[in-house]
Amino acid sequence: MQTHKNILTQPIIDMQNVCIRYGVEPDVLSNINLTLEKGSFHFLTGKSGAGKTSLLSMMYLALKPSKGTVNVFGANIGYAGREEMAMMRRKIGVVFQDFRLLEHLSAYDNVAVPLRVRGMGENEIKKRVKELLTWVELDKSMDKICSTLSGGEKQRVAIARAVINRPEILLADEPTGNVDDDIAFKLMKLFVELNKLGTTVVIATHSTDIIARYNYPQIHLENKELKIIPALRRVRNVE
């Protein structure tokens, strides 16, 4: 029988002996073992094609392993039903590399979607969305239709949508890839502050500057395998 202590210390994501392959192709990832504690912060690194997107896909419940066990919020996703998966996804914020915005809606309405799904009142939605879009410097563009925005603006809308619901897990695939350095570090500060509130954060990035500046542990993928590169030095002040 699982004790109360076990429940409190249960990893938020746990992968054991996981393999991923597509059809009859060779494994993309092999024998992956990964445990993420609640409130942790990791960078996900590796060359293009190393399997970062596949790993993130399992974390946000879009992909089940070809072999092995993946537990998210303590539930084995291989056996979770549709309703259970839907409930878990509501607790996960995702920043996709291709944004996946509703192009016919405004920036404001895209960011408001997760809150409306929750049934939040429009007054509270307006307060939260405007505050967050101001933070990511889109206060003058919030009424613009997303199809008219630049790539960097779309990136910031996607990030705002992912974090507006204050998710328990935040997964981001190259979230600073389409913005300049000043905005990139402002977005990183947003991720750090969310992490301080208890959100587990995993950010896939190729930015050596961001990795060096923040120096969180790395989940590194290479040759279909995973290793953890620890944060070996004290993080300097990044405020």
Question: How would you describe the overall organization of this protein?
Answer:
- This protein is an alpha/beta fold.
- Helix content is 35%, strand content 22%.
- The chain is built from 8 helices and 10 strands.
- A hairpin with an 8-residue loop joins strand 1 and strand 2 (29-36).
- The longest helix is centred in the last third of the chain and has 16 residues, at 181-196.
- The radius of gyration is 18 Å and the shape is globular.
- The model is unreliable at 1-7 (pLDDT under 50).
Q: Considering DSSP H and I runs of 4 or more, what fraction of the residues is helical?
A: 25-40%
Low-confidence stretches: 1-7
The overall strand count is 10
Write the CATH fold name of the domain at 40-51 and 82-229. Answer: Rossmann fold
The major pleated sheet works out as:
6 strands, mixed
Distance between the termini: 45 Å
Shape estimate: globular
By DSSP (H or I, 4+ residues per run), the number of helices equals 8
Helix and strand arrangement:
Layout: H1 4-8, E1 13-20, E2 29-36, E3 41-45, H2 52-59, E4 67-72, E5 75-76, H3 82-89, E6 92-95, H4 107-118, H5 122-135, H6 151-163, E7 169-173, H7 181-196, E8 200-204, H8 208-214, E9 218-222, E10 225-229
Parallel strand pairs: 3-8, 3-9, 6-7, 7-8
Antiparallel strand pairs: 1-2, 1-4, 4-5, 9-10
Helix pairs in contact: 4-5, 4-6
